[in-house]
Amino acid sequence: MKRLLALLVLCALLLPMIPAAADACVGRPVSLSGKVLGPVEGSDPVQYTVATRGNNEDTVIIEFPKGIGDPGLLPNEKAEVYGTFMAPVAKDTENGLRLSTLRVSVDRINGIVYADEIVEVDLYAYDDEP
Question: N or C: where does the chain have the smaller number of CB atoms within 10 Å of the terminal CB?
Fold first, then answer.
């Protein structure tokens, strides 16, 4: 468990600096919080950009499962995301630089579950049969 936690912390610290390290974290669980900047125009499935530090700094693209309509997140809304690292999105800029942005597949955001694999446990449910 300590190794997994150490790897997650390492990935969270190094991914913005070393895009090649992103491949090592693909498929790993992640949690993040930040401020919604807005939707990614024309994306299918639905994607939003979230700033994890300050104004427009350290942005992450959060992606909702296919078939989910627009969840209606508002700009500047706080987002607490639990999900899975995906391969980063890379874009070439006009001056020839290649920028990578982290992507996270959303399992849960602000307490709302979007992933089929997550089972909500009802602590007050009981079985009537002996």
Answer: C
- Max distance between CA atoms of the chain, in angstroms, equals 71
pTM above the 0.90 mark? Answer: no
Q: Is residue 128 part of a domain?
A: no
* Domain containing residue 71: 2-113
Residues of the chain with pLDDT under 70: 1-23, 55, 116-130
108 within domain boundaries: yes
In a domain, residue 42? The reply is yes
And the tokens for 18? 């070393």
CB 108 within 8 A of CB 65: no
Tokens of 62: 């959060």
Report the chain's mean pLDDT, rounded to a whole number: 78
CATH code assigned at 16: 2.40.50.140
CB 86 within 8 A of CB 105: yes
